[in-house]
Amino acid sequence: MKIAVIGAGAIGALIAGYLKLKGEDVSLVGRPEAVCIINKEGLKISGVRGNFKVDIFAHEVLTYKPELLILATKTQDIESALKDNLSLIKDSIIVTTQNGVQADNIVSRYLPQGNIISSIVMFGSTYFSPGKVVHNFEGSWVLGDIFKKISDSRILSVSLTLDKAFTTIISEDILGMKYLKIFVNANNCIPAILGLSMQEAFSDPEVSRVSIGIWKEGFDLLSQAGIKLVSLPGFPVENITRLISIPSNEAAKAFSGIMTKLSKDPLYGSILQSIKRGRSSEIDYINGEFVSLAERHRLTAPLNNKLVSMVHEVEETKKFFSKEGLFNSVKLLLN
């Protein structure tokens, strides 16, 4: 199977590199700087599986028709990636990997729904520099069909290929899982606002209180909107309901303990990684999804709305908030 991965960032580079190491026919599409370095020096992966230098071809745009296209750009970059390569991917199976719940809808404006496999990555990776990524922690790769248009045999075929790099799971209700993944990612806004690693940010229980507030507000919104969360591998829905049902101070201490032990290497989260690279982040598709959901159902999401605006302020000014500044900005919005 000829495979292409569009997006040479933390997730895309990791996926392409591991598939290549397993002998798959795969190439990588990325930005000019990354393409130049990868073609000259190879793709360098370090982390939980060891250190690897992967010889892989990289291109700025596709040069062939892939049977399988793994779309690993940020959500806000999907349209430009599709437009740049559209003539070569009309018959490809497309696997989306983005956070949030909008990626598949965007892809379906350009390509048949029956060619789209939605996915959720539960493994973690950090973009270090062009052509260099760190694999922070292991996790499965969940596949599913939001539109109920793609055949089971096609999903199974893709699953067997991707399983060479990561353990794959096929879900019958991936949309409910994707909404739960928003909760997992929603805390990424806090390190982005502070300019700190996740371990540094959440070592402070006061900062962790903000995360509990995000979850409480999000869970209330989804309940009122009638959206059912579905447990993820390694992250059951009870992880949310248990913490939001106990006093905030206790929940914050428990959350702090979990987050500071996620990885021995610093974790920055996707939002801060984008900001550090001078790019727009996916905040509008994570915490912003709570805000949009509230608007669609004539509800409110004041905490998430405030945090979205703070991330955009950091993007525009390149100035991070102090922990005190963060807490003072949101303390009246915490339950």
UniProtKB/TrEMBL annotation:
Q: Which GO terms describe its molecular function?
A: 2-dehydropantoate 2-reductase activity; NADP binding
EC main group: oxidoreductase
Enzyme Commission code(s) on record = 1.1.1.169
Residue intervals of the Ketopantoate reductase N-terminal domain: 3-145
Give the Ketopantoate reductase C-terminal domain ranges: 173-315
Q: Name one GO biological process term.
A: pantothenate biosynthetic process
The catalysed reaction is: (R)-pantoate + NADP(+) = 2-dehydropantoate + NADPH + H(+)
- Cited PANTHER family: 2-DEHYDROPANTOATE 2-REDUCTASE, 2-DEHYDROPANTOATE 2-REDUCTASE-RELATED
Query: Its function?
Result: Catalyzes the NADPH-dependent reduction of ketopantoate into pantoic acid.
Name-wise, this protein is 2-dehydropantoate 2-reductase
Q: Can you name the source organism?
A: Candidatus Sherwoodlollariibacterium unditelluris
